[in-house]
Write a structure and sequence with these properties.
The protein is built from five helices and five strands; from the N terminus they run E-H-E-H-E-H-H-E-E-H. By secondary structure, the chain is of the alpha+beta class.
């Protein structure tokens, strides 16, 4: 799967691997991304600094562009009552999830039928790294 330019898009980042044998600098980066536990989902607007943090901990997380439809389903399931205008502001990066009064990160269930192998990249059949639009399927299995 070829990476396209994902700058200026809303990303969903899910922590897949646990705390064992994690370097301190990577653990600190995941803490700043609000990914303290396995199966936590954080929403982050992609810019240069956030992409740098994601690249640093790419061997512990998976990420991709979340669709507006899946974001709406996620908000309904997690009890956040958002209007269409607030959802649009979130998708465009004008406001963060925390500014809209949501509890972040979202604690998700493990996906139905499990993850792919968690020590391999998504591009070679694993679960880690960039997924693109396929992140929506994973989130659907976790809701």
């Amino acid at each position: 799967m070829a990476k396209k330019n994902i700058e200026n898009r809303l990303l969903a980042i899910i922590r897949i691997r646990g705390r064992t044998n994690v370097r301190q600098s990577i653990a600190e980066t995941m803490k700043r991304l609000n990914l303290k536990r396995v199966n936590n989902l954080a929403l982050l607007y992609a810019n240069k600094s956030s992409m740098g943090m994601i690249k640093k901990c790419e061997s512990f997380v998976t990420y991709g562009e979340i669709s507006e439809e899946m974001l709406s389903k996620l908000m309904q399931k997690k009890g956040a009552k958002l209007e269409a205008s607030q959802l649009a502001e979130l998708m465009q990066g004008k406001k963060s999830a925390k500014e809209l009064g949501m509890r972040v990160p979202f604690a998700m269930k493990p996906p139905r039928k499990g993850y792919e192998p968690i020590k391999k990249s998504y591009s070679i059949g694993g679960a880690l790294g960039y997924r693109g639009e396929e992140i929506n399927k994973l989130i659907g299995r976790m809701i």
